[in-house]
UniProtKB/TrEMBL annotation:
GO terms for molecular function: DNA binding; DNA-binding transcription factor activity. Residues 24-160 form the HTH marR-type domain. GO terms for biological process: response to stress. It comes from Subtercola boreus. The keyword Transcription applies. Keywords: DNA-binding, Transcription, Transcription regulation. This is HTH marR-type domain-containing protein. Pfam families: MarR_2 (PF12802). InterPro entries: HTH_MarR-typ (IPR000835), MarR/SlyA-like (IPR039422), Tscrpt_reg_MarR-type_CS (IPR023187), WH-like_DNA-bd_sf (IPR036388), WH_DNA-bd_sf (IPR036390).
Amino acid sequence: MTTARVDALDDTRSDWRVIAPDLDTAPMGTMGRILRIARLATLLSDELLKAHGLTRGEFDVLSAVRRAAEPPTPSQLARSIAASNASITKRVGALEAAGLVLRERSTGDRRVVKVVVTPEGRERIDGALPDQLTLERELVGVLGAPERQELEGALRRVLLECDRRAEPAVT
């Protein structure tokens, strides 16, 4: 028989049960774990990406530019990675200063600026992405394939609900 291990959220919920026994803390267990996983995975990812000369924000932008069928505008990037226009401007500026992207005027409308990955940017993201995927594979590797698929489906539903509720804030 396997005994379930206790994590930080179990302790938090236990503390709240003492303080407020009538309070349903079940959502705290779910959302708290999602948020804690995100924070810890981000810390691990930050260290990995630093070795590639990228911050997480720069990685996200460079990845979005690299996979886009057509060079995106900064506004399209903001929507794609759920970031503010100001943060995109800062990240694109840093990537441009590092020679990883260029801002180019659209040939169809000179008022429109597109973000284009440079050969050095392509090389950088193509080098970082496999390492990032290895880290992610290792982290979710504690789950079997059926568990991962079930978790992915459940998280997709939660994400779609969050997207729906946050829509006005991120567009």
